[in-house]
Amino acid sequence: MRRGTRCLCDDELLAALLDTGARLKTSPEYDARKVLETAAGSFFQLSRWDVSDFAALGLPLSRACSLVAAFEIGRRIEERTEFSAQLASASDIFDFFERKALPLDREKCWVICADAKNRVIRFDEISAGTASASVFHPRDFLRPAVRANASAVALIHNHPSGDSSPSSSDLRITKSLAEACRIFEIRLLDHVIVGRRNIPPHARGYFSFVEAGLL
Q: Of 45, 74, 147, 148, which has the most beta carbons under 10 Å away?
């Protein structure tokens, strides 16, 4: 309290989150060290864990939930503060969603809603699937845009393999979305697939349907 959180080392920060105030068999300090050792000292690795992963180490449910909630809060803060105010290019979209998508081991889809000047209004996760597929209907994609009275939208999804090349399913869904957007008179700005940098054949880390001439 006197010196602030910036003076704390990683295990001390983690111990502060684990201190539930209840009488438990183990101390927050012991649990924090054990958790960090299991994750090779990486908060990034811990951000990918769910409650069952923490509970498997013997942590009480209350402590496991506290950790998962803390990492989710961090993700949401980043979402609200670091996204560009305007959609200028596919690379701008990738620069933000790269950080969001890297920890994921399954495909997820997001929709970005923008106004007439391509300024971001909101963005929403619309689908979470398996390690190789994420299924959604065009209405799931357009629902947030209609609610936000958006003039334009963009679709983003990740490929956990790191290869951002579009699949046949990606091509089909993009065609369906383009038709749905035309009917609703909402511009489809792009469909960006987020992979990892230096993974061939798209070493820059993403695939843009617009840049490839497919939209």
A: 148
Q: Which residues are CB-contacts of 174 (< 8 A; sequence separation ≥ 6)? A: 155, 166, 191, 209, 214, 215
Residues 6+ positions from 69 with CB-CB distance below 8 Å: none
Q: Which two tokens stand for residue 7?
A: 């003076």
Cross-strand pairs, 157 = 109, 193
Main-chain phi, psi angles of 20, to 5 degrees? -85, -10
List of residues 6+ apart from 76 with CB closer than 8 A: none
Distance between CA 197 and CA 207 in Å, rounded?
Answer: 11
Say if pTM beats, i.e. exceeds, 0.90: no
Other CB atoms within a 10 A radius of the CB of residue 26 amount to 13
